[in-house]
Here is the input.
Amino acid sequence: MIEITDLKASVEQTPILKGISLRLGPGEVHGIMGPNGSGKSTLARVLAGDPTYRVTGGSVLFHSTDLLELDADERARRGLFLAFQYPIEVPGVTIGNFLRAAVNARRDEDLPAMEFYGMLQERLKELGLDESWGNRYLNEGFSGGEKKRNEILQMMVLQPELCILDETDSGLDVDALRVVSEGVNQMRSPERSILIVTHYERLLEYIAPDRCHVMLDGRIVLSQDGVELARDIDERGYDFIREQVAAQAS
Here is the structure.
């Protein structure tokens, strides 16, 4: 699905990503963990095409296409989705109208209104959301948990091929975390890949990724299959990984 090779990126001439290499196959779910400032969110935003960051080296292939040559909107049209850590509010634009415009932007022909709103109601029910949700303005007055549920709703409606979740669990209580996790698990498919950026082990326990990675100082320093690595970090913090990295360097 996506192959990242020695990716380097900077912001305001400060290097953030210092050589990221990662392969994510169709049907796979990977988790990326790391302390603040390690570059996790930068990786997510660079993949989505955020112009704040300047790519200074490496390559990213998405379905064998050079992702770095595409503008952000074209990446989205081709099936890349980013769930933001801090979703913005858009007063005056309803969720229903926003999602319908987004769905039609990915199609050769517009989806009939009745068909779209029928599909939207199905997705709302799957997330346990009221039917009136689609009439609310996009994230306006939403709690943190509601904003994150709305991100999952967008993902379920758009059906992207590559889903990148940038700390979607940040600030969620237990109930909201469960709803978000169930939504992500419903999206698992042999034709879809999911990359989860998180600080915490708890989301990965609900989702059970195929592989976990740890980022430190702009690099992936450790990778393991399953969720055991995330559990070790939850129990021991990142110091034991820093010690391993230092030992290997010496």
Summary: The mean pLDDT is 90. The radius of gyration is 18 Å. The first strand starts at residue 2 and ends at 11. The chain has one domain: 2-249.
